[in-house]
């Protein structure tokens, strides 16, 4: 069983990359499982990845290189015993240090476990801003990587890429640097896919660091029931309106914030995922068809720099209430739970 850990800061495109890799691996007759870690109490990326039908286990309420180490070990053992995958793709939270995860998993004694090279994704558009705000954290993620993927080159200004490459080389001169868009399955992305089958050759043991503290990130997550049920167009428009308003409110307190705002609205037959990753961005939505016919619901995660936790909680909850009240949609906040989901059929759901 090979384990591939794909790290990178919040909003670097890990979920999109893993979803694309998982689909390609399944097409190539590989038995694939995915472990997703969210820093908040509510899982969002697991819902997105499970839309591919790939077996997905989701861990929430902590970081798997810190507080959830035992959970990820137990999850990996269970996957081995119950599913016996050829490849396990691990998406740690964006404020994790992947080398610490690899070091922990290498000592648990699962027979036949091997590791792909440690992969770190960076957002070609945002990297310079991230480096200026939290340099120690970003440097640690990059120093540990064997492969560095400069992602989102389809939307990054071309003149920024040489600067990003030079900075990455200053931090880690040994890593292989790739450029691609995880949304596009072209030759560039195929190079990343091919490297999943290689073995990690790093001999370094990662330092034990508190990644949550070093990231300087505050987080808020919650889940809501929506009444009445809404249609697809309304779900998309209200989700984008919510994140745009949240961006404005956060910028009042942290004008150059980085991080990730994510919202999923579930409606019968569809799921709308909307994301925003910095003060420079506008909300962007993806729509997924799904076979389940559950009622309407909202999942929300906000993880940003420059705002104190209590202040972020107040800001997000007030903004959610105001936006949905303006749309005449009632909200009911739900208790959070940590969930493990299993999806086997690749044909049940597909991204539009």
From TrEMBL:
GO-annotated cellular components: cytoplasm
Coiled-coil blocks: none
Residue intervals of the CobW/HypB/UreG nucleotide-binding domain? 3-178
Among Gene3D superfamilies, the record links this protein to: P-loop containing nucleotide triphosphate hydrolases
The family database entries (InterPro entries) matched by this protein are listed as: CobW/HypB/UreG_nucleotide-bd, P-loop_NTPase, Zinc-reg_GTPase_activator
Question: Which PANTHER family does the entry mention?
Answer: COBW DOMAIN-CONTAINING PROTEIN, COBW-RELATED
Q: What is this protein called?
A: Cobalamin synthesis protein P47K
């Amino acid at each position: 069983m090979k384990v591939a850990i794909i790290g990178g800061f919040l909003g670097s495109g890990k979920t999109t990359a893993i979803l694309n890799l998982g689909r390609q691996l399944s097409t190539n007759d590989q038995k694939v499982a995915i472990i997703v870690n969210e820093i908040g109490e509510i899982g969002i990326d697991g819902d997105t990845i499970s839309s591919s039908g790939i077996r997905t286990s989701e861990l929430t309420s902590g970081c798997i290189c810190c507080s959830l180490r035992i959970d990820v070990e137990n999850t990996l053992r269970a996957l081995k015993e119950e599913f016996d995958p050829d490849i396990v793709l691990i998406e740690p939270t964006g404020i994790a240090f992947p080398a610490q995860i690899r070091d922990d998993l290498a000592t648990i004694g699962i027979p036949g476990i091997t590791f792909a090279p440690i992969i770190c994704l960076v957002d070609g558009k945002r990297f310079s801003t991230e480096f200026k705000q939290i340099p120690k954290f970003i440097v640690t993620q990059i120093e540990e990587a064997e492969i560095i993927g400069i992602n989102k080159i389809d939307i990054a200004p071309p003149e920024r890429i040489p600067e990003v490459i030079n900075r990455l080389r200053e931090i880690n001169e040994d890593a292989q640097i790739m450029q691609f868009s995880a949304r596009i399955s072209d030759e560039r992305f195929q190079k990343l896919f091919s490297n999943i089958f290689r073995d990690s050759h790093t001999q370094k043991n990662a330092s034990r660091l508190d990644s949550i503290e070093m990231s300087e990130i505050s987080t808020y997550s919650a889940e809501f029931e929506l009444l009445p049920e809404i249609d697809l167009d309304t779900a998309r428009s209200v989700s984008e309106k919510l994140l745009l308003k949240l961006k404005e409110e956060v910028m009042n307190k942290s004008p150059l914030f980085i991080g990730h705002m994510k919202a999923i609205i579930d409606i019968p037959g569809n799921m709308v995922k909307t994301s925003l990753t910095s003060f420079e961005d506008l909300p962007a939505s993806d729509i997924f068809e799904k076979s389940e016919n559950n009622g309407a619901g909202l999942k929300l995660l906000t993880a940003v720099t420059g705002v104190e936790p209590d202040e972020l909680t107040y800001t997000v909850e007030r903004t959610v209430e105001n936006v949905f009240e303006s749309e005449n949609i009632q909200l009911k906040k739900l208790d959070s739970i940590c969930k493990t989901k299993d999806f086997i059929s690749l044909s049940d759901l597909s991204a539009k």
